[in-house]
Amino acid sequence: MSTEYTVTETLDVKGESCPMPVVKTKGTIDDLSEGDVLEVLATDSGSMSDLTGWAETTPGVELLDQEEDGDVFKHYVRKTE
């Protein structure tokens, strides 16, 4: 899934559990411009599958990458329209 991208904005949802990482990601992505990349920082391990499922079923977004960095799960989402 790795590709080159530049993060436009970072959303910190550490300490929040399902469904808040997805809810707040959607709200933040809605305010970005086409082509912008949102970095989402979460501590909920469920965010890995939750954000994948959300991105796969949501028009206008693309999940670029996900990684685990210690206790933090990093997600990179591009607004495509």
From TrEMBL:
Belongs to the sulfur carrier protein TusA family. PROSITE patterns: UPF0033. Residues 11-35 form the UPF0033 domain. This is UPF0033 domain-containing protein. Pfam families: TusA (PF01206). InterPro entries: TusA-like, TusA-like_sf. SUPFAM superfamilies: SirA-like. Signal peptide: none annotated. Gene3D superfamilies: TusA-like domain (3.30.110.40).
